[in-house]
Design goal:
RmlC-like_jellyroll, Cupin type-2 domain-containing protein, Cupin_2, mainly beta, RmlC_Cupin_sf, globular, 12% helix
């Protein structure tokens, strides 16, 4: 059994992205988006469910924009263009579940730039089995 006090774990992480757990069909990831930061516009081939732990931001999904704050949950179906932007003075902290996994097991990306570099280098691929 894996057990996380997820809001506490997410809020204590200074990393842009940290994979906490990877299963056969899903993956649990925590993210911290700094003030004036964003995830960056992207499209995944997997479904994604994001739950916001603290901070304020904007969810931009498939041409729609909504404000997000602590306790909000946003679903991004596979194939939809999306971005999440920090719109407040404090970090925007969230945890997300990908189905199936989207990132390398146990990946830690300290910054958005490091995450993008790892992805471009092919070093952030999800497990294949």
């Amino acid at each position: 059994m894996e057990h996380f006090t997820i809001a506490t774990v997410a809020e204590e992480s200074p990393d842009f992205r940290r994979v906490l757990w990877t299963g056969k069909h899903t993956q649990l990831v925590i993210m911290t988006i700094p003030p004036d930061g964003e995830i960056g516009e992207e499209v995944h081939e997997v479904d994604q469910i994001l739950t916001f732990v603290s901070g304020t931001g904007e969810a931009r999904v498939n041409g729609q924009t909504r404000k997000v704050t602590q306790g909000d949950l946003v679903i991004v179906p596979a194939g939809q263009k999306h971005n999440f932007v920090n719109a407040g003075p404090n970090p925007l902290v969230l945890y997300t579940i990908y189905g199936p996994p989207e990132h390398a097991d146990q990946a830690v990306h300290h910054s958005k730039e490091q995450a993008e570099a790892m992805e471009q280098a092919g070093k952030d691929e999800p497990p294949t089995s």
